[in-house]
Write a structure and sequence with these properties.
By secondary structure, the chain is mainly alpha-helical. It has 9 helices and no strands. It has one domain: Serine Threonine Protein Phosphatase 5, Tetratricopeptide repeat (Alpha Horseshoe), CATH 1.25.40. Helix 5 runs parallel beside helix 7 and helix 7 runs antiparallel to helix 8. The longest helix has 17 residues.
Length: 205
């Protein structure tokens, strides 16, 4: 399981980009700005967005591949391979191993969310949202999934109202968590760019 997978890096930078894109979108129909492959972050250590993707360690690839060959039902080795490729920015390879792991652990919401983040990184937002919806059917209050729903809807789908709704759920569920604080920043970014409400938002929402 990739720890605390989130589809963006340091929240302040991302939501600054979000606010800039929202303002630009008011002038014309623009796609979200192309961003470098985001880094995952853990709750204990902020992501370093200035660092390059980690290189894949061939010895670890061999190690986990050998485990899989000896133990075909070993899901953790597949997850570790997915993590190695994710860290290297090789998201297509990560997708392969996360999907293999999910055949063995189909109800692992963290793993499903990791897979969705990978789809976002390879510019397949619909597949990302499908993965997140799958996760939320298992755990409707999974904050990392909801946070990522908002990111994909805001950046890839230009659905600001959908992003607001997802982030508001995160704040309601866990306002003091890292995800809750990041979601609140996203909400504030949209509201500061659209003081009258996000496009399509009904008065009072």
């Amino acid at each position: 399981m990739r720890r605390d997978a989130i589809a963006f890096g340091v929240a302040g930078i991302v939501f600054g980009l979000l606010a800039g894109w929202v303002i630009g979108a008011k002038q014309a129909e623009l796609r979200p700005p192309v961003q470098p492959p985001p880094q995952q972050q853990s709750a204990s250590a902020p992501a370093d967005n200035g660092s390059a993707p980690a290189a894949v360690d061939p010895a670890k690839i061999t190690q986990f591949t050998n485990i899989i060959n000896k133990e075909p039902s070993n899901s953790e080795a597949r997850i570790e391979l997915g993590n190695l490729y994710y860290d290297a920015g090789r998201f297509d390879d990560a997708i392969k191993w996360y999907e293999e792991a999910l055949k063995l652990k189909p109800r692992d919401v963290n793993l499903i969310t990791d897979l969705g983040v990978c789809y976002y990184n390879v510019n397949q937002p619909d597949k990302a949202l499908d993965a997140f919806n799958r996760s939320l059917k298992i755990d409707p209050k999974h904050t990392k999934t909801l946070l990522n729903v908002g990111v994909v809807k805001a950046f890839a789908k230009q659905d600001l109202q959908g992003a607001l709704e997802a982030w508001q759920q995160v704040v309601q569920i866990a306002p003091n968590s890292p995800e809750g604080k990041q979601a609140q920043q996203g909400i504030e970014g949209i509201r500061s760019a659209h003081p009258g409400g996000a496009p399509g938002q009904k008065p009072g929402n």
